[in-house]
């Protein structure tokens, strides 16, 4: 249907029913229908990763997925990282290690980092650089982003150890 | 930027998907990962009237060996191949390619079969499928159809897959004793298409090459099956530098690149020569059970 | 007044407190222009020219107007009726807002569509029908002055060619004489190619006209909100007190967000006419093809020297490609920016440069991309020449530089093209870099590798920057003096707000400027909240670019805090019944000299300022404002050393090691300084290795999206090794010089020099950026080098 379709999707743990045009991109639904503007748009060609969210736990570019495809799925955005227990270790790492400057790529970069650490709790610098290579940052030169992820890895291991 | 309007269906079986595709005439498009299709739609280089989303069809995510074949279902993402122990242990060329397709985020969404069906000569998987002699299993209104990877692409963005067919699975023969493979790609940065890439698969008896297959990426209007280069290796030793060089020269001769932002045609042709040699050496090392 | 001791002040200068602004960014609670969603907001899209040069015969918007949700299609003719079809550029030229007579570059703005939703605005682009007559194009600037070249600016009365300006600096005759006496002259023709700042956030605005109050609020991606307010007033004829520019969080600027773009003007006009908020956000493609490109300098440089390597003179001629309109961003009196800093770090008696600028059928510019107005091109040219001189004379590149460096005792140093350098210790920075990189071992390794046929190179860059514009007597933009300001207000309980005329796009002003206050007043930096970017709530300033925030706004902050410290001293003396001069100030406490128990904290003084019984004649309150006009520019410098390995098979260049020793004077927050350097180095790496906006012979733009305009990822980006050198500026209140741009200014030539050094054995003396593998491959193959 090119008319609007009703979908049910869980975003940051909360279930939403949303009416979307089939051509609406997931990032537009998150930003405009749900008013969660932490997920950004930086290009038109799936090149920059500013729009990265977790789809059923995996980091994906929300500008290259249709909103209707989120029907029945779970989405996590930057707004879903902080819990009642406080900041996610990745958020803490980005602040502690100066892993951001203008902040525009940061939400996407953090979502990719969160997924990396879920899969590989003790990544090498090389692992981190490869994992974040779908996310462009124009400010930091990536050095402190690597440190931020390492900080988070240590913090997470400390918590579980 | 947004795509033009379209209708959307998300069937839950292959039969329903085939039916849906039929209703779209020639203008419907299957969407698996959507990582090639959606960007084209956003730039309005493609404006299908109907999207048939196959992500809700159960059973298309098979990644396993059975009956002598590696089966890669239509919903197997690049990232799953990259993370698969089976692939890591037994199909080094697939791991090589998986690590260098697009970027890690796109790899979580894009699919092997979707890439092959896209018919883009810049697609890495078509080359891998060619080098490994893959069978491409499709389903259409008249039932199952099997295509060969080696001659699957017919022109830029066109393949033998009928507009009413869905590519549901790629099947790759399981490795033989003494088989080694490798994929070498030159890209300007992560996320770029290949300036040139070469996939090779060889079988060794001792150091003697008994079987060889070479595929080339993004150096012509089609994915190139460099048959003469491969044939020249049969009976030669993997340690025969002259034979390896000759295969590189023949592979370069089989390429037909155009000059663009990734470099002039003569550069790309020379890359084919150099990468063919490097891929053969790596494949040889792997065939002999050494790490590479 | 000097900087006080701050032994116990939390967040004072030299410490690295974590950034205040990060608390919102890490939660996704930044507020960028595209995040602004207003009730009733409309959306704008822009139809752009597919041609680089074509006459517009007619524009038919009727199909678009009939499409769902479309409210208006605005053409140049519509704007003409309001006198808005053309606007002034920062360089004093005019630029079409929407094309009327003809289009002059691919991607030029022709029709603006206003619709109820963003998808509707985009859909309607397909409903615009323009009848064009394509015209011959001029793409190569080297042919722009040919007699038969098509004239781009037929709108300028009497204009019969494509010449924009000729600008000269230095003494041509003296330079000629210096060259006559030279043993060696090194010549280099090189292109610093057209690139783009490409911040992760594109440009855009939400213009919101209040029909009841007549107030126009523009949420704008702006590096210079105050200057933009004045320009809006001048261009659109709106009364300036009824314009409010809010530049909220800005997702990177790098010079891209200094100019005013047609989209801002049309969206604002549309909001004014329709009476509703109008949002316009560029797509990435629009950003790359139409806004603020940088560089595009075709440079011919000559360096004269004795056979022993003593530099005698520099001569440079430049052909500058400014595109279809001269929209260069630079102070008004500086058409080629500060290109005449080109003698760099070297003491030579004579220099001369001449810059000719021309129009071509390309996007207008250029902006100073992370650069203080053409210093990047100048630093590139001299550093490339110096490395080539080293190769020619056989003198080691480090040694040659040290032989020619301006010496510490020569400062303030008057350069042959007229600048007065404030301070420097170039040998020191070089020595630190040489040690960090282990230079001797590297040259030994290189010699061994050459024996084995491997290709490795070492490249230098010992740049000097000129930043902090600065100096109203020579620097203005559109007549506005390039001053900047700070307003400091401390509330009764000792916590307060600092308001700035400069604006952050990621530099961390909310943290570092509070540190300056902490330093001067001795209160914790976290007790100060910094506001910027809203013209209704901050004092006037020219904005943040050209590394000017710390040199100007930072100076204003220190001075305004000192004014308040003196007020505090008066109050303390009053309370302690002593003379103000009898008080010492340390870490926020006034103490009567010789009576350590007689003290008043700054907080006590502040509270007193809001009470009765103040010193005779003193007003209540604890606030002040300072406008700072810099007495001189500041001159950051550094030495960078780059080590590359080259794959003979593919031509691929790998930056294996890169040492950067920067001297930016006093470092306010070392963590943030390092972060700025990392980022700038990576942009310089992108410039050297992959970034490029190019055109085919018809004027079609390549590099129009992030698949073609290549920005380094974490995988390509090198590991940076930083070293530190601190030579304070003698004239800046806290001795700081500015750091944002040094690394982009200094790094590309280190990489190119390393590649040329690697290829010197094969007779190669130059490869222009970007250093694409295919160029290196060709150089190797042409020299007969086999792949293995």
Describe the structure.
Chain A has helices at about 25-35, 90-95, 105-120, 125-130, 145-160; strands spanning about 5-10, 15-20, 50-55, 60, 75. Chain A has about 160 residues and is an alpha+beta fold. Chain A folds into two domains: about 5-80, Beta-grasp domain (Ubiquitin-like (UB roll), Roll), CATH 3.10.20; about 90-155, Orthogonal Bundle (DNA polymerase, domain 1). Chain A has a five-stranded mixed beta sheet, with helices on both faces. In chain A, a hairpin with a 2-residue loop joins strand 3 and strand 4. In chain B, the strands form four sheets. Chain B has a five-stranded antiparallel beta sheet with strand order 4-5-10-6-7, with helices on both faces. A four-stranded antiparallel beta sheet of chain B has the order 11-12-13-14. Chain B is α+β, with helices and mostly antiparallel strands and about 290 residues long. In chain B, strand 12 (about 195-205) and strand 13 form a beta hairpin. Chain C is an alpha+beta fold and about 800 residues long. Chain C folds into three domains: about 35-140 and about 200-290, Aldehyde oxidase/xanthine dehydrogenase, a/b hammerhead (Aldehyde Oxidoreductase, domain 3), CATH 3.90.1170; about 410-415 and about 420-465 and about 635-788, 2-Layer Sandwich (Aldehyde Oxidoreductase, domain 4), CATH 3.30.365; about 485-630, Aldehyde Oxidoreductase, domain 4. Helices cover about 25% and strands about 25% of the residues of chain C. In chain C, the strands form ten sheets. In chain C, strands 3-7-1-14-11-12-13 form a seven-stranded mixed beta sheet. The termini of chain C are far apart. The relative contact order of chain C is 0.13. The model of chain C has no long low-confidence stretch (mean pLDDT about 95). Chains in contact: A-B, A-C, B-C. Chains A and C meet through helix 1, helix 2, helix 3, helix 4 and helix 5 of A and helix 1 and helix 16 of C.
